[in-house]
Amino acid sequence: MSKTSRLNCIIPPHLLKRLLESQDSDVRQAALDTMLTTARLRGERAVRASFAGPAATATGNGRRTVFDCDQGSFLASAVMARSEDGPESADESANRAFGGLGLTRDFYKEVFQRDSIDGHGMRLDGYVHFSVKFNNAFWDGRQMVFGDGDGKMLGDLTRSLDVIAHELTHGVTEHTAGLVYHNQSGALNESMSDVFGSLVKQWSLKQSVDEADWLIGADVWTPGIDADALRSMKAPGHAYDNALFGKDPQPDRMSKFIHLPDTEEGDSGGVHFNSGIPNKAFFLAAVGIGGFAWEGAGPIWYESLKASSSETQFQDFADTTFQKAGELFGVGSAEQSAVLAAWQGVEIPISGVPAGVARGRSRTVDGNGGLSRQDGVAALTRQVGELSAQMTRLAKDVAALKGTG
């Protein structure tokens, strides 16, 4: 199967496998059905991807349409539940999907001047009540689809705005960098959706970096489940820890990188696991810059996404964010210093940055993992000044040698 044909799902395979171990037969059956249906859908997308030529995209000023699958698993059979010009639906799932798609569309338009998923007004089609007790939500290359959950462990996937924004962002990534869904590029793909999913939620609530919870899918678990969320960007590896699901396995630095086979069973090389590393880097950069994340770290990450390619790796992306921070906010700015410190915090040094400069700025990281704006600029200025002085002395030495030659 082509790696570009894989579905982009919010719930990782390892959580569904854990549900298969539940003592509740209904939960086990729902998990099994979810996995089987997902496998069928992946096959369908692989067939679509095998046709020559790019897939057509429907343009229409980002107009939204939400369809009700009524527990069916064939999207063509779904009926319209709400349209851009139509009245509010009696179905709350349809209204939540409609509202979430609209907020995400408006976020990209107002913050990044991006016109819908493809940048050209692509229509936004969402599907709710997909299949029976379907424990997932996904982007399939054309539309966003949301299940109701099994009702015991996982609830309606439309309840989390960041989940809706996460799925729409998979479409944005597909139409920009096209990050291939495996290994490090796939983990970056997942991270981009978490990053902008969190930003949409923060933007809608007008939360600063200190006020945000930095959780992904906090409203997905049912009240009876002892878990904060599906993932934590602030503390990867600490979103949940309970008897059924075990401890959140996400790493937060490169020394903890999880190596898995590039198969469906191996989560395409651990894309939902290792996304914790760039997620933590974004959190550190956002907190280091301060204020509203969509005004600081957000533009840096968005411009870096647009500048990336299909097989971009963690190191490539880190280097690009450092470059874009300099372009957007100035070389040596506090924002660029925060980006440097953030990637150092997850054990990815920026290529080409002299070790002395890196060490000087890394000491300015505060107790919260952020970077003091004034200290960051001062450290950078001091180190650049030292390098300049060294170059001046070297030039004088060279001139003296020529004079005596």
- CATH superfamily placement of one domain: Neutral Protease Domain 2
CATH topology of one domain: Neutral Protease, domain 2
Strand order of the largest sheet: 1-5-6-4-2-3
Overall geometric form: globular
The value of Rg in angstroms is: 23 Å
Specify the CATH architecture of one domain: Orthogonal Bundle
Poorly predicted residue ranges: 1-5, 50-56, 358-382, 384-389
CATH class of one domain: Mainly Alpha
- Percentage of residues in strands: 5-15%
Number of helices: 12
Mean pLDDT: 88
Structural class: alpha+beta
Q: Please tally the β strands and state the result.
A: 10
* Helix content, binned percent: 40-55%
Largest sheet: 6 strands, mixed
End-to-end gap: 67 Å
Please name the defining characteristics of this protein.
alpha+beta; disordered N terminus; 405 residues; 12 helices; Neutral Protease, domain 2; 10 strands; 47% helix; two-stranded antiparallel sheet; single chain; six-stranded mixed beta sheet; globular
In summary, what is this structure?
The protein has helices spanning 13-19, 25-50, 92-112, 161-174, 183-205, 267-274, 276-289, 297-306, 314-329, 334-345, 355-362, 373-404, and strands at 8-9, 64-68, 79-83, 124-128, 137-139, 144-146, 215-216, 231-232, 241-242, 246-247. The chain has 405 residues and is an alpha+beta fold.
